[in-house]
Amino acid sequence: MSELLTVLGVGGPLAVMGGTVAVAREKCPSVYWSAVGLPLSTVRLLGSYGSVMDACGLTVAPSRLRALAVRAATRREVRPVPPRRGLLWPTSTGLRLRLRLAAGQEVADVAASAERLRHAWGVHAVHVSEIRPGTVELRLVGFDVLRDVRMPRHTQGGYLRVPVALREDATAFVRDYRAIPHQLTLGATLSGKSMYLRHLVAGLAGQDVALVGIDCKRGVELAPFASRLSALATDPVEAAELLSVMVRLMDRRYDLIRARQNIPVGTPDQAITSDLWGLPEEERPVPVVVFVDEVAELFLAATRKDEERRDEMVTQLIRLAQLGRAAGIYLEVCGQRFGAELGKGATMLRAQLSGRVCHRVNDEASAKMALGDIAPEAVIAACSVPADRPGTAVAGDTSGGWSRIRTPYLSLADAADRCVKTAHLVPELRELAPFKPVNVSTAVEAGGLPA
Ligand SMILES: Nc1ncnc2c1ncn2[C@@H]1O[C@H](COP(=O)(O)OP(=O)(O)OP(=O)(O)O)[C@@H](O)[C@H]1O
């Protein structure tokens, strides 16, 4: 064939065109998808829907009525029935398609065939989710969206909801503090934990929320954001003092909530509250997000005195994790490992941190510390995060769901700049005033931030 094309004089141009398409596919997958992949996959899907469903075992026998009607009207062979297909919705990264399941089918049947469907329709991945009983949505993703992360335009962010990364199904992964109050983020060195924290700080900086940092790596990770922090502790001694203050703050908020519960006769039901969010807006204290970078540093103890301080700190962290949610105090804990070997209280604290994000890890044991109580497949996925893709992680929560995510790139300078611009939003919290980092902007400038 190629000889014939060469004789006709079109072999050369065709080869050049083929090469250009291959390069576009490699270098600009989103452009390739819009120009070539989308029309091809649409044609494939529309042309082969019935036969692909049949080959994947996703068809059911037709009802007797349908069989009779087909025989009477066409005298054709009565074929098995695939799920009823809705409209195809093209997106910048793929296609969306809703299916009405046939009687006797369940979501798991379609999910089990996702790998076969992706091969049949020539897309990078097929993700299946339930929309309502009997209806599933297929998200066909045309290319590897985690290679060059672009966040979608509509991310469903909001108050205490930070779109922090992209999921592999091209939807935004939102860190929602009210749904999952406390989170543990693990990862080996250079795996992208700081980038993750950076996005959270930058995302929360513009909101009415107090940000508190505990960074026992002498503040190297969190000091650049100091202008927006209400408090920063950079060594274990300061951290111990700050945590005691946080626990006292929490106790006072509980008192406030309890005072509100001395319910006078005639109080409407909706005014009775058991947490901060039920208080009237003018009385409601501002929520506090506590970032703990490199949690293992808090557990280290060389002397007996250190040990006492460590035990006290761990107890306070556990109290904050157990009771903080109702008082609007949320924990964001980061570290390389978080196992029982850290010492007394580690396992108990970990159990309270229900949100889990695991970046690349050095061994399976570390992945199990983050995801072991979520799903064995999530552990395997975390162990296979490639080293040349920093920021890639497996995110799960203790309800059992998990997904692969990757943060977009955000330079430290841009995140710090956002903090400087939103410094006027630092809320007044009398208790935290002694811990307010003072020489913040000067420290940032003097620190010479990397790009
Ligand atoms: N999503 C991302 N996209 C591109 N580059 C990234 C991403 N996340 C992290 N990186 C890069 O990877 C490198 C390591 O990232 P980061 O400092 O966040 O890792 P870390 O896990 O905090 O490491 P350490 O524990 O040593 O502080 C940095 O150079 C950072 O710019």
UniProtKB/TrEMBL annotation:
**Chain positions recorded as ATP binding sites:** 187-194
InterPro entries named among the record's database cross-references: FtsK/SpoIIIE/SftA, FtsK_dom, P-loop_NTPase
Any one Pfam family match given in the protein's UniProt record, by short name: FtsK_SpoIIIE
Gene3D superfamilies, per the entry: P-loop containing nucleotide triphosphate hydrolases
Is Thylakoid there in the keyword field? no
Query: Any idea which UniProt keywords this protein has?
Result: ATP-binding, Nucleotide-binding
- Annotated FtsK domain ranges read 167-368
Under PANTHER family, the record lists: DNA TRANSLOCASE FTSK, SPORULATION PROTEIN RELATED
The protein's name in its UniProt record? FtsK/SpoIIIE domain-containing protein
